[in-house]
């Protein structure tokens, strides 16, 4: 156990908790320490967190190296602060928040209760059982209002909630969604500072992150992309995957994800992407369409997925036949956008 309340895994999964800060404080890590030898791994993991936030709007936890994971959060915050870019700050806070609500879906209700109390929620367990979903929590209506205010779906209106003696009944999914708002605000607040100076390692990481953000976000602005798919502008890795899909009728998991998310992002309709997989030996129409729509953000959590960045594709052996333009970009969508510009 890391402390009376949370395990070390919890501190890594929920690094914005007050207890995580208390756990880190005695280590006395200072910003200038990042310039010392032996900090590469920590800086790399921290930068990876920010990259993932920009590309995928969530941040997968790596619980194999638990201390590194815990420490990478404050370092990632420093990188984001050093970008001095409000878009990246918002995107990072959102990604930490989204990852939290995903992880909370698998936690016991007692853990959700503890995390909510870290935000000073007046929350308790309830025994109320709905026909479909157990309403496992009651929270003070003021805590509810503070977090539901930004949510536009009419189900969050106070008049549509079950209110009793100043408390609102909530199921686990809704409690996690409201906590997502708390996390986003807490992380945004921690990013809302300006530091007098940064070690060069941090400045270099911040510059790389800014470049990635302008490529990915620029490429995501679909208005700027032509309405038709321009196959001649595909980056070499996507051409290779496309060719492999049509000739060998098989792709690795990463290959399938990369090709599908790339095609969806450049505006290919899901049915057209589905056509590509029809000749695969393991083709199952219902499942394939579901997977494609999931990547497009039309199913499940609603997250719209982007293809991985080049460094990740290189690790997985998906980056093939690099050309001159590849040397100047960080992301396959950045390649596509530059090629058609
Ligand atoms: S560098 Fe990037 S865009 Fe170019 S082939 Fe490799 S993964 Fe694709």
Characterise this structure.
The protein has 15 helices and 4 strands. It is mainly α and 341 residues long. The termini are far apart. It has a 4-stranded antiparallel beta sheet with strand order 1-2-4-3. The site of iron/sulfur cluster (SF4) has 10 residues, from helix 10, helix 14 and helix 15.
Structural topology:
Layout: H1 8-13, H2 18-24, H3 40-56, H4 66-83, H5 86-104, H6 109-118, E1 123-125, E2 137-140, H7 141-148, E3 163-164, E4 167-170, H8 172-191, H9 200-220, H10 236-248, H11 253-265, H12 270-276, H13 285-295, H14 310-315, H15 332-340
Antiparallel strand pairs: 1-2, 2-4, 3-4
The structure holds iron/sulfur cluster.
Iron/sulfur cluster is lined by residues 235-237, 310, 313, 319, 322, 326, 332, 335.
Listing every helix as H and every strand as E from the N terminus to the C terminus, the arrangement reads HHHHHHEEHEEHHHHHHHH
Number of helices: 15
- Largest sheet properties: 4 strands, antiparallel
Ligand set = iron/sulfur cluster
**What kind of assembly state do the chains in view correspond to?**
single chain
How many strands appear in the DSSP assignment? 4
Strand order of the largest sheet: 1-2-4-3
Principal-axes geometry comes out as globular
Q: Please, what is the average pLDDT? A: 88
> Could you give the distance between the termini?
54 Å
Percent of residues in helices comes to: 40-55%
Structural class: mainly alpha
Low-confidence stretches: none
Instruction: Provide the gyration radius in Å.
Output: 22 Å
Strand content: under 5%
């Amino acid at each position: 156990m890391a402390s009376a309340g949370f395990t070390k895994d919890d501190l890594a999964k929920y690094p914005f908790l007050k207890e995580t800060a208390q756990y880190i404080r005695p280590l006395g890590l200072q910003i200038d320490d990042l310039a010392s030898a032996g900090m590469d791994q920590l800086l790399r993991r921290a930068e990876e967190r920010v990259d993932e936030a920009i590309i995928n709007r969530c941040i997968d936890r790596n619980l194999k190296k638990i201390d590194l994971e815990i420490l990478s959060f404050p370092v990632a915050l420093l990188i984001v602060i050093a970008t001095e870019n409000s878009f990246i700050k918002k995107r990072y806070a959102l990604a930490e928040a989204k990852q939290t609500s995903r992880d909370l879906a698998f936690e016991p209700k007692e853990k959700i209760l503890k995390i909510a109390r870290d935000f000073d929620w007046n929350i308790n367990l309830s025994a109320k059982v709905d026909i479909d979903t157990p309403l496992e929590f009651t929270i003070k209506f003021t805590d509810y209002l503070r977090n539901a205010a930004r949510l536009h779906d009419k189900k969050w209106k106070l008049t549509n909630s079950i209110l009793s003696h100043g408390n609102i009944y909530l199921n686990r999914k809704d409690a996690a969604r409201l906590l997502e708002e708390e996390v986003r605000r807490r992380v945004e607040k921690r990013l809302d500072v300006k530091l007098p100076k940064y070690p060069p390692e941090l400045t270099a990481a911040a510059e790389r992150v800014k470049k990635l953000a302008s490529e990915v976000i620029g490429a995501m602005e679909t208005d700027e992309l032509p309405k038709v798919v321009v196959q001649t502008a595909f980056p070499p890795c996507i051409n290779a995957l496309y060719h492999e899909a049509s000739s060998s009728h098989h792709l690795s998991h990463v290959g399938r994800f990369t090709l599908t998310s790339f095609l969806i992002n450049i505006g290919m309709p899901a049915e057209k992407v589905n056509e590509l997989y029809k000749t695969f030996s393991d083709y199952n129409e219902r499942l394939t369409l579901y997977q494609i729509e999931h990547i497009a953000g039309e199913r499940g959590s609603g997250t719209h997925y982007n293809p991985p960045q080049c460094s990740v594709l290189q690790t997985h052996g998906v980056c093939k036949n690099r050309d001159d333009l590849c040397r100047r970009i960080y992301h396959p969508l950045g390649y596509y956008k530059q090629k058609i510009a």
